[in-house]
Amino acid sequence: METTSLSVIKRSGVAEAFDRAKVVNGVRKACQGRPVDNDDLAKLAQEVEEAIRATGHAEIDAHDVGLAILGPLRRLDKVAYLRFASVYQDFDNLDDFEKAIHDLRSRPEVQEPLQAKLFTR
Question: Is residue 87 very low, low, confident or very high in pLDDT (cuts 50, 70, 90)?
Answer without folding.
Answer: confident
